[in-house]
Structures are given as structure tokens and as C-alpha cells.
Amino acid sequence: MIAPHGVQELAVLFAKFAGLVTMTGIGEILMVLQSHDISTPRFAVLKHLNSHNGATVSTIAHTLGLTIGSTSQLIDRLEVDGLVYRLEDDADRRVRRVYLNDRGDYLINQLKSMRIRQLEEQLVKLPNEVIMQLTAALTAAFPFITKDID
């Protein structure tokens, strides 16, 4: 399938924008993760659970592209760190689901708030007209981009 005209240019612009946004404040976020001794893979598990609380180990592994064994080890460590817990599934006792506990939820929300503040510091530099245009365009695009995400 050939991409419609302008899609490649838009993709390049998004990549540049995402790169700039990612690098903005990354040091501050890494410091918080390091202070909690959270590696990137463990952070990915926490982020997944923030969107899909009660996921199974196999679902988390599949979504993150990891083996079930390595995902299970990551979750074991997150349990020891007091950030997640596992419970038996009500419908199938053989299945155990993973949940963020209050401490894990607090950490993820702290990082989200930090990230939003960092982005606001960058976006406030834009003219109001550009902010309104970006808001409208992203609001219109969001349903199409997220419709295939679990």
C-alpha cells in the first residue's frame, strides 16, 4: 500500500517532534526512576499496568515484546519493591492478574504530572493560534490512532 501524499512528511515531522519532546526533561524523569531503582523494562510494565490494570503476565509479555519468564521476573521485582501485587482471576483460578498498588499508582501519576509540566513548559512557547491548531488536529487524529490499541 502506498502512503497518501504528505504522510511521509508528517511522519518525519512527528519523529522530530517526538524526539525533541522525549529529550525535554528526560534527566529529571531518569533521576526519579533511579531513586526508586526502576529500570526501563520495569517502568514499561508499570506504564502498561497503568493503562491495563489487572493484566496477565502473558499479556504484558506479548505487549512489551518480552518472554513470559523475563516478564515474570520483572513483576517479581516490582512486587518486592512494593509497587504491584498479583491476584487470582475470579473466573479462572489458574490465572493470576497483576495490579498496581497504591505506591505504584502514585509513582506513575507523579511521573505523568512531571511529564505534563515539562511539556507545558515547552508548548507555552508557541503562539496561541498554533496551540489551537495543534489541539484541533490532534483531537481529530487521536481516535484514528488509538482505535486498534487495547
What does this structure look like?
By secondary structure, the chain is mainly α. It has a single domain, classed as Orthogonal Bundle (Arc Repressor Mutant, subunit A), CATH 1.10.10. It has helices spanning 7-23, 26-35, 40-51, 57-64, 68-80, 102-123, 128-146, and strands at residues 55-56, 84-88, 96-100. It has a three-stranded antiparallel beta sheet. A hairpin with a 7-residue loop joins strand 2 and strand 3. Helix 4 (57-64) packs across helix 5 (68-80). The longest helix is centred in the C-terminal third of the chain and has 22 residues, at 102-123. The radius of gyration is 19 Å and the shape is globular. 13% of the residues are buried.
Give the topology.
Blueprint: H1 7-23, H2 26-35, H3 40-51, E1 55-56, H4 57-64, H5 68-80, E2 84-88, E3 96-100, H6 102-123, H7 128-146
Antiparallel strand pairs: 1-3, 2-3
Helix pairs in contact: 4-5
